[in-house]
Structures are given as C-alpha cells and as structure tokens.
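Reagents: none. Just compute today. Calcineurin-like phosphoesterase domain-containing protein.
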Amino acid sequence: MRLLSVKDANKIIEAFLQPRWNFVTSPEEKDELHRLADELRKAAAPAPKLSFAVLSDIQYWDTKAAGKFSAALADLYRLNPELDDLVINGDLGDGRPEDYAKLGALVQNHPLADRIYYTIGNHEFYQAYYNSQGDWAPDSFPNGETDHASIARFLQFTGLSGLYYDRLIQGSFHVSGLRAI
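Predicted 3D structure written out:
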C-alpha cells in the first residue's frame, strides 16, 4: 500500500525541499533535507510483492546463541510484522536432537512458525564430534554417527522429504531450497 504517489512526492521535494536546500548552510541541515526527501520517496514506493528475511548460522545450541536468536526474531517481527516468510540457512545447531528440540520450542510460537524454510549446513553433521556422554570429542570422531543419521534428524525436524525442495509462496512466487554446505 502506497502512502503517497511518486508524482506527489516529487512535487513536495521540488516545491519545498529543493528551494530550502539553496538557503541552508550547515551539513546537518542538508542531511536533514536529504533524510526528509528519502522518507518521501519511501512513502511513495510501491509495496513489495514478497517480503522475507534470511538468517544464517544461528547455531542454536547454547544459552548465548539462544538469546541472540530470540532477539533477532523479535527484531525482524518488530521491523516488519508483514514478513511473508523466513529462511534460515544452515548451521541451526550442532545437529543433536536437543538442539532441534530447543529450536523447535522457540519457533513454534513465532508468527512465522509455519512459514520458516530451512537449509542444512555443515554443523548439522556435528553430532559425530560428540561422544556418548554428550561431550565434545573430536579425537574419537565419528563417535558411531553417520551422515545418513544427521540428514535424517534434519529432515525430521523440518518435516521435509529431502534436502532439496521447492515452495510456492503466495500462489505465485517459487522458491527453491538449497543445500547450504
């Protein structure tokens, strides 16, 4: 939805802001005139046909990462509550079941919960670096883990049937899922 036509925005800029530009002398005043002209141009811009955000490498496995990811989701929604979709590219956590459980619990209540698209990253295979006690143990890699098991956990979490997928968004936009490793 446009708040202002492009023609009217240009009229306001030409009739009011440009003449004032010739009389201001301070850089601050010129910056303010630029800012106002930019705001008018934004108000006259057509609404986007599709609006989505992309996050990457959230590595949602510790408290610090969880807090930052939660804040990022809140910021995205605050900045644009009309987002159509969210793409989260790879490195969701370390590929452990508890990582997926924590991430799932957080996103299930987000307004975009049913419109989040995931891609797999190399960290989804890191379960192989943990021993049976849950400790980081790269010396005993692969700790009985297989790539197939890592992929299966990712697919179970995302509900996808395969790593590559396509989605139709708003009936006309086609998005292809990529394997991001």
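The chain has two domains: 6-44, 52-176.
Action item: order primers for follow-up constructs.
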